[in-house]
Hints:
Layout: H1 4-27, E1 33-38, E2 44-49, H2 50-74, H3 78-83, H4 85-110
Antiparallel strand pairs: 1-2
Helix pairs in contact: 1-2, 1-4, 2-4
Amino acid sequence: MKIRSLVVAGSAILLAMLALSAWAWFQLPDGAQVPVHWGPNGEPDGWGPKWLGLLGLPATAAFVLGLLALIPRFEPRLANLSRSAPAYVAIGLAVMGMLAIMHVAAVMAALGSDI
């Protein structure tokens, strides 16, 4: 199954998330609290330490990307998955994109921006 485009684009998204985290690390003071959860009204209602807020979503994205890359190796019905490869890649990239957007929102909120 051809998922190279998913791995390459997903890795680029992950690197961008890590670059944003590295930049924000030096912008936030030590002991800063970063939002890690939002309530149904869109307001942050859960806060965590700087390391969790800046590295939690990139770590989750890395896990998801690794899982998406490994699933085709162990899927017993690979022929069915291969026929669905374009959808598999599109959904994988959509999930990675969603995680990246959530990460940008968390970093912006931690830096005091009104999102």
